[in-house]
Amino acid sequence: MVRKAARVREPIQVYVDRDDRALLEAVAARTGLPRAEVLRRGLRAFAGQVLAERGPGSSLEALIGVLGDDAPRDLAARHDEYLVKSARGRRARPRRR
Predict the structure, then answer these.
(1) What does the alpha-carbon distance between residue 12 and residue 41 come to, in Å, rounded to a whole number?
(2) Which helix (H) or strand (E) holds 23?
(3) I need a labelling partner for 85 at 20 to 30 A (CA). Which of 8, 16, 22, 64 fits?
(4) How confident is the model over 2-32, as pLDDT tens digits?
């Protein structure tokens, strides 16, 4: 009979408030996972964010301030129009209609 290698587990005690306990219970119920596995997965996900060299969205930091004071004040609302104007300005020849 082949036995699996025993995994060393270390018990840990965590205190949570009522809201966090309810959240843990809801996630465990929805996923069918034991509460301990929900906590382990949450820890791994959080560690991936905190310990990563570059977090999600960090590539956007390079764009902050690129336009300076020349940016139109309605850029957020009319960004598609500005993109179309910019693309038309880069074309070598005018588009036929």
Answers:
(1) 15
(2) helix 18-31
(3) 64
(4) 666 667 788 999 999 999 999 999 999 999 9
List Cα–Cα distances, 4 to 7, 11, 86, in angstroms. Answer: 9, 21, 62
**31 phi and psi, to 5 degrees?**
-90, -20
What are the CA-CA distances from residue 28 to residues 17, 35, 37, 44 (Å)? 16, 6, 9, 16
Q: What is the pTM of this model?
A: 0.49
* DSSP H or E stretch at residue 36: helix 35-51
Q: Is the dihedral of CA 84, 89, 90, 93 positive or negative?
A: positive
How many whole angstroms separate alpha carbon 26 and alpha carbon 32? 10
